Amino acid sequence: MILVTGATGFVGRALVRRLVIDTSPANLLAAVRRLDANLPDGVGCVQIGDLLPTTDWRLALQDAHEVIHCAARVHVMNDQTSDPLSEFRRVNVEGTANLARQAAAAGVKRFIFLSSIKVNGEHTLAGQAFTADDAVAPTDPYGISKHEAEQLLRQIGTQTGMEIVIIRPPLVYGPGVKANFASMMRWLTRGVPLPLAAITGNRRSLVALDTLVDLIVTCLDHPAAANQTFLVSDGEDLSTAGLLIRMSVALGRPARLIHCPPVLLRLGAAMMNRSGIYQRLCGSLQLDITKTRELLGWNPPVSVDEGLRRTIEGFHQ
């Protein structure tokens, strides 16, 4: 039995759909907060509630051999919590460790943890991509919580013999994507002029939803995945302007990009106290997936253009 947490989330829902195709729905169990979750026919469902340090997972784990842990308190812009780091730790660190300890006690063989590239850091110098074995440097509460969860999981794996697999994706896009990626699609659809034509020298790694799901499924039973950390991406890094042009092609709309010197963008972002937005739009964040390719014999199954096509199709629907 495969237990999937966060089964109604952006990644979890796509993962469950893929697993229904690859295996019998009777071999799947989705852990959900509410029993009204809309899941594929035949998929077992167990109500767990919130991911907390005190959550009782015994019912969900009684027949599980593998756990894919997608549930998390996710990174959000303008977090209004008075102490974001404590809240991230309560859910992402203590809640994850609680699940892992109960999973090991229940005899789970392999625990796959969906982490984040934010564990490595927020940006790279162009041409100097992160690797899975680099020293980590998380800076925001979300990234710190994911790093601390990884550390605890490795300790639990060492103590119990449960195999731990950690996957760190960058920004994930696909049907149903929200936040900044969805905003860019809306801007392009409406023909909003964007002052980003000059942002051609940066490089950012992204990952299509179906590519991330494919790697998770590969890690379920691949013997070389045990106790490893993997980075994942599309395998093609794009500049901001390049991404917008490729998105506009998928949308069938011309991209209205205006040339604005990056120094003016940086100044404007600083004046509005939005330096983080400038970094995400104009900085680089590259992932080296050589280890993932070579150790697992795996390659991204979906091209950037195909991933964008599927994303836009979902956007129109």
Query: Over the alpha carbons, how many angstroms does the gyration radius reach?
Result: 20 Å
Element string (H = helix, E = strand):
EHEEHEHEHEEHEHEHHHHH
Shape: globular
Structural class: alpha/beta
- Terminal Cα span: 33 Å
* Residues in helices, as a percent range: 40-55%
Strands in their spatial order, largest beta sheet: 3-2-1-4-5-6-9
Q: Output mean pLDDT.
A: 92
| Helix run count | 11
**Spans where pLDDT lies below 50 across 5 or more residues:** none
The biggest sheet, with number of strands, parallel, antiparallel or mixed sense and barrel status, is: 7 strands, parallel
Query: What percentage of amino acids are in beta strands?
Result: 5-15%
According to DSSP, the number of beta strands is 9
Q: Gist?
A:
With 317 residues, the chain is an alpha/beta fold. Helices cover 42% and strands 12% of the residues.
